[in-house]
Design a protein that fits this description.
Elements (H helix, E strand, L loop, with lengths): L15 E5 L4 H12 L3 E6 L2 H14 L5 E5 L5 H10 L7 E4 L17 H16 L1 H5 L5 E5 L22 H25 L5 E5 L15 H13 L4 H4 L1 H8 L8 E6 L3 E6 L9 H15 L4 H4 L3
Parallel strand pairs: 1-2, 1-4, 2-3, 4-5, 5-6, 6-7
Antiparallel strand pairs: 7-8
Organism: Streptomyces longwoodensis
Protein name: Short-chain dehydrogenase
Keywords: Oxidoreductase
């Protein structure tokens, strides 16, 4: 991959992209660079005010950018269904599952699921499934799901998906990010079995200043993390590069995991290490079945072949 940068993004004219959590951080940079390359971009986020401000900012930074706002609250499956029903285009070339929460106190989303598992995994599982017909209508669609190098700190516990037995905020975060990789692996497997030309891949930003630390821990912890962001983290512009590479570079292989080259921490996009359990077919299928049951969203168009 060498020193791949945004200058290497291929022309995206004619392509339509949805980027979740595109009102700030990695999502905003991802949306901006896709728009700069010519894509029509839907900024999908929860807060209408922040979403509209992000659209105006993108239009200011990229004159002529074709960007629109769509309200999407991944903490509410009804909102996910409403977004999919609202989606105004007949196809979708690129879905970037970027939005997420990190290491928040125990809580539940509108549907009763633990917050990090619900937002980071189940919300995107449902969104992708509901948008599947639009992805299949595109000639060479991609689904990019943003995980984390911290996925290695937590293996999904199928007996306690909602952390009812015990809750550790970092463990729950790691498990949700492992779930992102299980989802990518199983989605890629199902696309291959059904001979569907959609490519499912994953990416992670390494250690990047994304704004997620704003809700982590108490005041002292937040001050420490903010200081770490300033001194050690790469900027969001660099943290978004693995996602942009996975989304646009030619020849990206299904089920690949792209991250920063230097110790998974920072640097140009490169093939990234992933925990072996995220490639476990049995665990992936069981999590898939549980996710379909919990969300009520099925992938009938590809499930039959799988």
């Amino acid at each position: 991959m060498g020193g791949w940068t945004t200058r290497d993004i291929p022309e995206q004219g004619g392509r339509i992209a949805v980027v979740t959590g595109a009102n700030g951080g990695l999502g905003l940079v991802t949306a901006r660079e896709l728009a700069r390359a010519g894509a029509r971009v839907v900024v999908a986020c929860r807060d209408a005010g922040r979403g509209e401000r992000a659209v105006e900012r993108l239009r200011g930074e990229v004159p002529g950018a074709d960007v629109t706002f769509g309200r999407l609250d991944l903490a509410d499956l009804r909102s996910v269904r409403e977004f999919a029903a609202w989606y105004p285009h007949d196809r979708l070339d690129l879905l970037v599952n970027n939005a997420g929460v990190m290491a928040v106190p125990y809580g539940t989303i509108a549907d009763g699921f633990e917050t990090q598992f619900g937002v980071n995994h189940l919300g995107h599982f449902a969104l992708t499934g509901l948008l599947l017909p639009r992805l299949l209508a595109a000639p060479a669609a991609r689904v990019v799901t943003v995980s984390s190098m911290l996925h290695a700190l937590g293996k999904v516990d199928l007996r306690d998906l909602n952390s009812l037995r015990s809750y550790g905020r970092w463990t729950a975060y790691a498990r949700s990010k492992s779930a992102n990789l299980h989802f990518t692996h199983e989605l890629a497997r199902r696309f291959a079995a059904s001979e569907t030309p959609v490519v499912a891949v994953a990416a992670h930003p390494g250690y990047a200043a994304t704004g997620l630390t704003a809700g982590v821990g108490g005041a002292a912890t937040r001050r420490l993390l903010v200081a770490g962001d300033r001194v050690l983290a790469q900027p969001a512009e660099d943290g978004a590069l693995p996602t942009l590479y996975a989304a646009t570079a030619p020849g990206v292989r299904p089920d690949s995991f792209t991250g920063p080259a230097l110790a998974m921490w920072r640097g140009a996009p490169s093939r990234s290490w992933r925990a072996p359990w995220t490639l476990d077919d049995t665990l992936g299928q069981r999590l898939w079945d549980a996710s379909a049951r919990l969300t009520g969203v099925t992938y009938d168009l590809v499930d039959r072949a799988a």
